[in-house]
Amino acid sequence: MKKIFLFVLLLMFIATPVFASMSVDIEVNQTQVTLSGTSSYKNMPVSIRIFDDYRSYYIDQGLTDENGDFEFNFMLDENKEYSGKVNVNGEAKVFEVSTNGNDVILPIIIKDTAYISIKGYNGQTVLSKTKVEVEEGDTVLDILKRVLEQNDIDFETRGGYVKSIDGLSEFDHGAKSGWMFKINGEFPDIGMDDVEVGKDDNIVILYTTDLGADVGNVYYVEQTGLERALEEADEIFNDEDATEEEIKNAIDSLIDNFSKDSEDIQKEADAKKVVSNAVEVIQLIDKVKDKIYTEEGAEKIAEAGAEILQALKKSAGKITEVKTREKVKDVTVKAINTVLNVVDKIQEQKEVDGLVDSIMDSAVKIAKELEKEHAKEIHNNVVKLIQKAIEKLGTERLSQHQIDKTGDKIVAQVEVDKLFEKAELAVEKAKEMENKLAENNIELNRSLEKKIVIEVPSGNADGVEINLPSGAIGSMLSKNIDKAVIKTEIAVFHVTAKTFGDKARDKKINFKANKVELTEIPDDAKLKIPENSIVIDLDVALDNEAISYFEEPIEVSIPYTGEVEDSEKITVFLLKDDGTVEAVGGEYDAVTKTAKFMTNHFSKYFAKISVKEFTDLNDNYDWAKKSIEVMAGKGFINGKAEGIFAPEANITRAEFAAIVTRMLKYEASDSIAIPFEDVHKSSWYYKAVAAAYQNGLVNGKSSKTFDPDGKITRQEVATIIAKVLKSKSFKQAGQKELDLFQDKENIAEWAKSSVALSAKLEIVKGTDDGTFAPNKDASRAQASVMLYRLYKLLMN
């Protein structure tokens, strides 16, 4: 037996050129040859061709295994010299092998020829059969590109496949149309850039309108369907140069194939396959939603979400496996949220109403088949979608004659009369949808919000000014509108009846938002502001008189264009006149790429990542660690010392009042008089207790004592949280919510309704033993987690 060892260095171009190696071991036993090798390419295409001057004797292809190894076995004639070529992942070397006893294998360079022809739509000839030279390592794609260039035929490729030739593109004749190829009469199941061309090979490039069925590719047709559609969609969706038209066609193909695979659901195995397919499809579609800019594209995505829910509706009742049932919930929520993210782009109200009805019908039926906690999450997301539909109905985009642009500033004049019709439509739609939700046994935590949204197109302006005429707020709110939202690309303002109080009802209101130039920022402050953060200067005036503080904190959103590894770490900061900065909270919205926060006065603000870590949050506090660090990063809570939080320590009544009012931006008016004799004006907590008292959050231990240094119990915490929720229009919960706790009888009568509401909204939960422990003093960790959940609920 003769054993020959071949070592080839392959050059790869990644970020910078590096060398990888491929070793090949050839064993020749008379005429039986075994070629085995190893390379640095794992699970990648590998091909081999053995030939002489007259013909090919052996051709094969496959994939390297997970270690990069490969092997081919074949027979050759005795006492002959052969040439060979091994190609791994597009890198190739030519060698010689002998069956006559010669042990030397030398690299050689051979110029071969092959043939190529191109047939377009309906078999029309684009290029007649043409003889071409084959360079070492040439693939089908290499040959095709070279011959097209030589014949001045336009073409476009993407990655390893052909997008268009001579003006004829994939999808031009339907979702199943595109270019494919065969070589020597066979249709390979790998791409053009993976098939190496050898001597006398005959390549035919073909245009198909039916996934290959119309051009004789039976094998390809058998391998297509949803799997092929997923593969193609993934390639298109990941291509930065893909057009929206290509994306829409890929979505069509995905949903067509998904729907076909979901038609016949007889057994649990069928249903589980539908769920698995739905996960892959919605993940792909959700990934590409940000590349859709047109109404038609948004409709495609929304219809895809609705189609997925239709299939899940038919599948959910057949699934018994717990993990798969949870997966049904997850993909249902994902599909609803995907629709939610694009529905703003759909202008036709009938289209939106139809989508909402279809999605609600499917989601309700899916939820009925799942566990209570899963159903609750699905219902909550249905409500979000409905709320968005109502908001769309109440949206008025200002026309060009209402906008004056001077330099890089926009000045907008709002005409209130145009908003009245929108207000009435929003109110009417809210009532209609509340009735539908009730019919479907979906319980609302609070009434659907009725909004007027004023969109001010500001383009690339660096500043915007919005003028509302006298009585605008009063007129809008008289139509039973809960909130007026003024939406610009620089800032978004959420105005309620309480924001400015009664004094604003009959006055002109002037909002301003301006981007602050870096040159206007004090030098010591510049170091605290990341390069990708945008500082926004906010201002408001009533009848041209600046407003220092608001009657009720206002919600504002400002842009954030920086990195987002963890959205919960995005925090808004106040930039003070002295150059210092202060965290004021905030919640990042990945759809709008803005950070929303609450404030009781306007100034300069910017968003950035804010992280605070504590060394004493060990494994025993895994359940609280993230909540504590997020709340600390947002400036709501502090440690006991540098890096020390003391999670096990009890929290006092004054400390809790301080955190709540800081989080909600409540401040006491100068005129407020509190009755507590043990809360002195010189105390650090005086303003916090006064603000909590003025806003109805706290009572004293008696009419004249507050007990600021006393511990606060878990049921007292729940009571304060419930008061916050009720002030934000959340509905009271039933006593059945207390069944969650084994010790519900120990909850004081005065606290039961508050604990029930807090439990229903999952802000308070039981301890490890299933009890609520109402009279137990709350720890700093427990209080932080409960307030973290409250803040998330209010901001979302």
Walk me through the structure.
It is a single chain. The protein has 796 residues and is of the alpha+beta class. The chain has 18 helices and 31 strands. The longest helix is centred in the middle third of the chain and has 23 residues, at 417-439.
Question: What is the topology?
Answer:
Layout: E1 2-13, E2 17-29, E3 32-39, E4 45-51, E5 56-63, E6 69-75, E7 81-88, E8 91-98, E9 112-119, E10 125-134, H1 140-150, E11 155-158, E12 161-165, E13 168-169, E14 178-183, E15 202-208, H2 218-223, H3 226-237, H4 244-261, H5 268-288, H6 295-315, H7 322-342, H8 349-368, H9 372-393, E16 395-397, E17 403-406, E18 409-413, H10 417-439, E19 451-455, E20 463-468, H11 472-477, E21 483-487, E22 492-495, E23 509-515, H12 523-526, E24 536-542, E25 545-546, E26 554-559, E27 570-575, E28 581-583, E29 587-589, E30 594-599, E31 604-609, H13 622-633, H14 653-664, H15 686-694, H16 714-727, H17 749-760, H18 780-795
Parallel strand pairs: 9-15, 16-19, 18-20, 19-21
Antiparallel strand pairs: 1-2, 2-3, 3-6, 4-5, 4-7, 7-8, 9-10, 11-12, 12-13, 14-15, 17-18, 20-23, 21-22, 22-26, 23-24, 24-25, 24-31, 26-30, 27-28, 27-31, 29-30
Helix pairs in contact: 3-4, 3-5, 4-5, 4-6, 5-6, 5-7, 6-7, 6-8, 7-8, 7-9, 8-9, 9-10, 13-18, 14-15, 16-17, 16-18
